[in-house]
Amino acid sequence: MSIQVWTWILVGITFTLYIGIAIRSRAGSTKEFYVAGGGVSPLANGLATAADWMSAASFISMAGLISFNGYDGSVYLMGWTGGYVLLALLLAPYLRKFGKFTVPDFIGDRYYSNVARSVAVFCALLVSFTYVAGQMRGVGLVFSRFLEVDINTGVIIGMIIVLFYAVLGGMKGITYTQVAQYCVLIFAFMVPAIFISIQMTGNPIPQLGFGGADENGVYLLDKLDGLHRELGFAEYTSGSKTTLDVFLITAALMFGTAGLPHVIVRFFTVKKVSDARKSAGWALLLIAILYTTAPAISLFSRTNLIETVSNEKYEKLPEWFSNWEKTGLIKFDDKNKDGRVQYVADVSKNELIVDKDIMVLANPEIAGLPNWVIALVAAGALAAALSTAAGLLLVISASVSHDFIKKMVNPNITEKGELVAARLSAVVAVVLLVILVFIHQILSLPQ
Amino acid sequence: MESENRKKYWKKNLKYLAILLSIWFLVSFGFGILLVDELNSIRFAGFKLGFWFAQQGAIYVFVILIFVYIRLMNKLDKKFGCNN
Questions:
Q1: Residue A446 has pLDDT above 50, yes or no
Q2: Reduced to 3 states, what is the DSSP secondary structure of residue A329?
Q3: In a domain, B42, yes or no
Q4: Nearest in space to A279 (alpha carbons), one of A103, A114, A39
Q5: Could you tell me if residue B33 is inside a domain?
Q6: Is residue A291 within 8 angstroms of chain B, CB to CB?
């Protein structure tokens, strides 16, 4: 079966699963809509938090970024997981203890100020909108490359699915879809990683294959450092950023991560403070599985890419190369007209530009893995993007209906009215997002 | 909880946080960034040690830190008889 058929099948199955879960766990009260009723088990919340937190950036982009930046890419690994430690130790238990529905709730009540509350609402909306837009680019990318659907249509399909289960199920619905999405995304991330680790090092555990050697007994990291030197790139294990840059970027990523509104609200869904701590532990353990595998994928895919394309005749390149060329995410320009790909650091001689975002998606193809594995990665990327988008959409909707309408505009609103407001604001948010995506597309058309 | 106990509980809590966050800083900013070049002269398997901390080790330690924190706090809660 072709990649496209496999992808339709796997995307079809997983989307049906998400919708099925949403229909089973409809929210009937505001408490269910905002915090899933407040009785989610620590393990389920850990699974959901991991899916919520790991976005299209973690799944699709991160390994590619590290692949191209080597040691410098460590800022994402340490920054994002290190920030999570701050969140788990300094924020989650205390916010749970306070026991409200949203972050603006905490800020508004703690500082006895509706101005502070408004600022928090504004920040939550700003962060969430920007962040959802990024998820939607991920969804569009997967749809256009693997299903040959127009990128805008892809974005709209994705948004409708998210809207459907966020509006219907609220936090209760997205909690259990996120549990399913974690399982899909981690399976999809690990299967190709294990295959490739065996192929390249004979070790099935990517974290160990990372430090493993090829069939000639040369350690992969040493080999890639050598390839980089040959082509004029900075050594993979040393990078080219200054220590100060790496330090400060890592710190910025940490503090940013600790404040993600859609992750913080997940800790309101458990029964007690000790459960909040426990679910934070589960979540980081589950996140670490992907985060320690990603840099191994970066090494494998970088080595594979260079060995496949460097100095190879253009017409002899494998099929994936031309497939990605069609999307414009790989560009080849034969500057010296020798019909071969010169991939070097020197910009005036370099003939190949590879978009960093495609490495995880292209990796199984580059390694020649079976079509179902490639399709699985597409389904996993969608799971990562949709789970984060749903979490963010809920922040948007709660900010409007709870923090803005109920707390500031109309405190006498009925429970039923608030629930309708919550659902309506999710719908409005999605319509706004789709319009934004279209405006962006129209503005960037000439490129 | 009485205010005396509450103070003790909070003090203990802060002490745990200080220790755990020092380790957090040491493995990431310390081993993974500031001391990375020095540690890179030490090798195990195919890894340079500093590079390993930056891309693997720090994350493993982070996970352990949170589970140690859970254990310590649960014990503390029990000792002071507070379940929430």
A1: no
A2: coil
A3: yes
A4: A39
A5: yes
A6: yes
- Give ipTM to 2 decimals: 0.94
Instruction: Say yes or no: A273 contacts chain B, CB-CB below 8 A.
Output: yes
pLDDT, tens digit, 9 for 90 and up, residues B18-66? 999 999 999 999 999 999 999 999 998 899 999 999 999 999 999 999 9
DSSP alpha helices (H): ranges in A25-150? 30-35, 42-53, 56, 62-69, 74-86, 92-98, 103-110, 114-146
pLDDT digits (tens, 9 = 90+) for A416-426: 888 888 889 88
**B59 interaction partners in chain A (CB closer than 8 Å):** 77-78, 81, 288, 291-292
- Which of A78, A277, A291 is facing B70, going by the closest CB pair? A277
Q: Is residue B28 part of a domain?
A: yes
Interchain contact, A88 vs B33, CB within 8 Å: no
pLDDT at B83: 57
pLDDT digits (tens, 9 = 90+) for A143-178: 877 788 877 788 888 888 888 878 888 888 889 999
What dotted CATH number matches A3-209+241-298+371-443?
Answer: 1.20.1730.10
Q: Is residue B39 part of a domain?
A: yes
Instruction: Assess contact for A144 and A134: CB atoms under 8 A.
Output: no
Burial of A232 (0-12, 13-18, 19+ CB in 10 A): exposed
**Could you give the number of structural domains in chain B?**
1
> DSSP class of residue A353?
E
Query: Are A88 and B69 within 8 A, CB to CB?
Result: yes
Residue pairs between chains A and B whose CB atoms are closer than 8 Å: 116
Across all residues in chain A, what is the average pLDDT?
89
Long-range contacts of B12-16 (CB under 8 A, 24+ apart): B12/B76, B13/B73, B13/B76, B16/B69, B16/B72, B16/B73, B16/B76
User: Is the Cβ of A248 closer than 8 Å to some Cβ of chain B?
Assistant: no
The verdict on a CB contact (< 8 Å) between A82 and B56 is: no
pTM equals 0.91
- Structural domain range at position B44: 3-79
* Tokens read off for A369: 């893995």
Q: Choose among A208, A246, A281: nearest Cβ to B67.
A: A281
